[in-house]
Each structure stands twice: as structure tokens, then as C-alpha cells.
Amino acid sequence: MLALQSYENGRKCPVCGMDITFCHDQNKVRQTFKGADVETCFVSEMREQAMRRFADSGEVKAPNSQTTKLSIRNG
Ligand SMILES: [Zn+2]
Hints:
By secondary structure, this protein is mostly helical. Helices cover 45% and strands 0% of the residues.
């Protein structure tokens, strides 16, 4: 909730995390960037895999309220 409030009160875009005076201005964005490449965030991939295993294991009562916690590898 605090994160949502921070986004709504701040000037950061909830989609990309940049200042909205920049990312909501198409001319500024096009003057700065020529395009984008597709990359994979392997932390998010790991979280997606955990959520998929959880969903496949049984009934998910609140699919938009579940989150993940990364487990540190020992050694
Ligand atoms: Zn944005």
C-alpha cells in the first residue's frame, strides 16, 4: 500500500519507474532512445516459476495477492 501511495504521490511511473515528465512525453523518449531490446530478468523468471509451481499444486484463492520470497543459496 505504501508503495502504491508513493507511486501515486510521486512523479515516478508505475510502469517503467522513470520520472513521468520524461516517459509520458513521446518526443523526449524518442529523442533519447532509438529502441529497445528484449532481455530476461532471471530473478523475475525464478519468481514466475515459483508462482507457476504454486498454482499447479492446488487452488489459488487470491491469485493477485500472492508474492514470492527468494531463498539464498548456502555455499
Ligand atoms: Zn513510464
